[in-house]
């Protein structure tokens, strides 16, 4: 089974990145033999949060630290199952998900994107006239 794992470094012993859209890199891990390939992180501002670039890898499961509603929706449209594994290494996370020790997320772990309301609008926010 193929996993996409959001990590801090391009190593199988790396820790899971705190947020999907801010991950430095991703590992594409084959759980059958734990071989992996590293891919540079995606930008949160890319269309569909950059998940389309992974379609050629036949990913079935995504392991993250946190994931917002936009990215969650995009990866679910790809047919992936999503798992939250904060503080674990990629090796431990894949193993624990594979052994059904971690449950699939049914909703995003964040209520909104961390980029919501970051000054990208026209100044018409709350209490503005």
Q: What distinguishing features does this structure have?
A:
129 residues, five-stranded mixed sheet, 20% strand, Nucleotidyltransferase, domain 5, alpha/beta
What does this structure look like?
The protein is an alpha/beta fold and 129 residues long. It has a single domain, classed as Nucleotidyltransferase, domain 5, CATH 3.30.420.130. The chain is 14% helix and 20% strand. It has 2 helices and 5 strands, in the order ββββαβα. The chain has helices spanning 69-77, 90-98; strands at residues 2-7, 25-30, 35-40, 61-64, 81-84. A 5-stranded mixed beta sheet has the order 3-2-1-4-5, sandwiched between helices. Strand 4, helix 1 (69-77) and strand 5 form a beta-alpha-beta unit. The radius of gyration is 15 Å and the shape is globular. It starts with a strand and ends in a 31-residue tail after the last helix. The model is unreliable at 115-119 (pLDDT under 50).
